[in-house]
Amino acid sequence: MAVHAQEERIETPALPSAMKLRRQILFSALATAVCLFGGLLVGFAIAIAVSNLPMHIPNQTLNFISMMLLLSILFFAGAAWGYAMAKISSTQNKRRMIWAGALSFSPALVLAGLMLATLERVIVERGQGPDLPVHNVFTILFVPAAFFVAGTGGLALGLAERNLRLGLRLAAGAGLSAALGFLLINLLMDALGWRVGAPGAAERATMLTVMMAGNLAAALAGGGILGYQLSRYFQRNTVDLVQ
Q: What mean pLDDT is reported for the chain?
């Protein structure tokens, strides 16, 4: 009986503690915020600084250089995020995770930006969309954009593990949590008087402030959910392999 009980304990390892799971969620949220949101801030700051340099270079050339710098920073920020997520989740596919982060964040952000710019011109400038207040249009456009960027990153991490089903689950979890995080911050700041499109909003840079605060919330929420989902996935795989 004692030998049999000992064999059972060896064959079925205990799942990691709740404290370890919470630590992985926290580290994933922080890694996503630091790498992706931080990379976005640094990239935009450097691009704006370069585009405003007092140099005898045509504006188009300066804008091109600024865009290339921004894309490069976003690429390395995505790679750093993939590396961090690989370390936190203890995956064996670290290199694939790094490439997944590098090749998902920058393209997803650029596509989201292009879609937002196009829709803004159609709805706000040309008035061809629904007749809604500016702050409602902002919410309608930016919440799905947060879902798209976060969902793309989650899908890429799942594909890095060669598991499409995992990728779809990560995309749904990260996308929904990021969109919800952005929405909650948007509604909170609106209630506190930071309403996009309100009188005097341009002077306070309200849209930029709300957008950046929402992006930070989206990064924390999406990263935390990704950490939870990846942790549970590797726990189950470890138990299945041992059994």
A: 88
Q: CA 22 to CA 29: how far, in whole Å?
A: 11
Q: Whole-angstrom Cα distance, residue 12 to residue 6?
A: 10
Give per-residue pLDDT as tens, 24-71.
Answer: 999 999 999 999 999 999 999 998 888 888 877 887 888 888 899 999
235, part of any domain = yes
Question: Would you state the pLDDT for residue 11?
Answer: 40
User: For the whole model, what pTM was predicted?
Assistant: 0.86
Residue 226 lies in a domain: yes
Structure tokens at 133: 């207040």
Of 153, 27, 173, whose CA–CA distance to 89 is shortest?
A: 27
Q: What angle do CA 162, 164, 166 make, to 5 degrees?
A: 95
Residue 7 forms part of a structural domain: no
Q: What is the distance between the alpha carbons of residues 129 and 123, in angstroms, rounded to a whole number?
A: 4
Enumerate residues 6+ apart whose C-beta is below 8 A from 213.
185, 189
Domain membership of residue 77 as a residue range: 16-242
With H, G, I as helix, E, B as strand and everything else as coil, classify residue 159: helix
Is residue 145 one of the residues assigned to a domain? yes
Contact (Cβ atoms closer than 8 angstroms) between residue 39 and residue 76: yes
| Secondary structure (DSSP) of 133-199 | -HHHHHHHHHHHHHHHHHHHHHHHHHHHTT-HHHHHHHHHHHHHHHHHHHHHHHHHHHHTT--TTST
Q: Which amino acid is at 213?
A: A
Instruction: Say how many domains are in the chain.
Output: 1
Read off the pLDDT band of 21 (50, 70, 90): confident
Answer yes or no: are the C-beta atoms of 187 and 218 closer than 8 Å.
no
